[in-house]
Every structure is written in C-alpha cells, then in structure tokens.
Fold this protein.
Amino acid sequence: DTAVSQTPKYLVTQMGNDKSIKCEQNLGHDTMYWYKQDSKKFLKIMFSYNNKELIINETVPNRFSPKSPDKAHLNLHINSLELGDSAVYFCASSHLEESRNEQYFGPGTRLTVT
Amino acid sequence: GENVEQHPSTLSVQEGDSAVIKCTYSDSASNYFPWYKQELGKGPQLIIDIRSNVGEKKDQRIAVTLNKTAKHFSLHITETQPEDSAVYFCAASWYGNKLTFGGGTRVLVKP
C-alpha cells in the first residue's frame, strides 16, 4: 500500500522521559511534516523537511528535535516529556513544487504523558 | 502570519440534505486551499482542494468555492449520507507548503 505510516500508534510514558516517533512515506514525496493536534482538535504545523533539510520550524520547544535520515523518513524525538506534550502527532508528506503540493497525512500517534 | 477561521463548529443535517462549511483567511498571499475529513481515530484525509487561479471545483457530491476578493472559501456537500459524519478542516497555504488550519467543523448526518 502506498501511504504515510507512523509508529507507534499509541505511546504512554511518564514525565521526564525521552521518546521517539517514526514516520515513513512511500509516495515518492520530497517534503515531510510534523503536525500536533491538541485535545480540542486544533491542528498546527511543527516542522517541515525538504530533501533532509529543515524548511519550516515553528515556535516549538527545543525539547522537540526532528531528524530526517533520508527523504522518505522523518522522525520526531522528544526530550524531557511534559504533561502538555500529550496530544496526537501527525506526520504528512507532499511534493514541494506548488502545483502538486497536496499533503497526505499518516494515521497519527497518540502520546499520553502521565 | 496566516489566520484561518472556520464556521460553524458543529453542523447537524438530515440525511439527503446539503451541508455548507465556510472559512475565511487573513493573508491575501495564500494560494492553496485544501479541505480534509477526519474520522475518529484516523488521520486527516484530503477530500478536495482549490488553487487561487480557480473559483470553483467539484468532485461528485462535494464542491469548493473560492472568493479571493473577500478572502473566503466554502465546502459544499450535497445529498449527505451517514458516512459523511466526521470532522472537516479547511486550511490555507502560501509559502513552503505551510498549512494553517481552521478550527474544524463536526458534521453529524442523521439518518
């Protein structure tokens, strides 16, 4: 299946821990994104990478560090987790080119910090 | 930065009726306006989009209209079915594919 996939789907951890979420796309896109969806369903972009280079970096605590080993993968590492980090995190991908920049989302990772 | 407002926040319709969701955006430079459908426990699914050089686009029962002068765009769903029940998000983008989302509309189609 061609898609954007994320692992894990659920992540429950304690405050202060470090965790990672992985994302892979096989759509042949050159740009990948991380979005955060809070408890009120509001979706906000966090980061964007194009061909392994950071192109969008919103006001996100530096405890969040994205890493792109290649253009098909974008991982999100979170240090020193806080209660407020609890949310659903979505990975997405697209072409950078404006005429075909439709973004396709993964299934999400629900992070719960206790 | 871009700001997108979406109305209504909830919408209840009878099966077979039409549903309309409206969004306004603030940045006149925005040139791409997608709509996403999110079902419970799933990721947002792109259902239709429109670019600034087009005023209207239709795909079967869904259509989107764009008024660049007024900076608003709308999603129209005709002949609604129970499977149309979901949360719908509008978004706007102008630079680097940075999507700014509206707050979402929870649509309930009653059989």
Notes: The first strand of chain A starts at residue 4 and ends at 7. The CA atoms of residues 16 and 80 of chain A lie 4 Å apart.
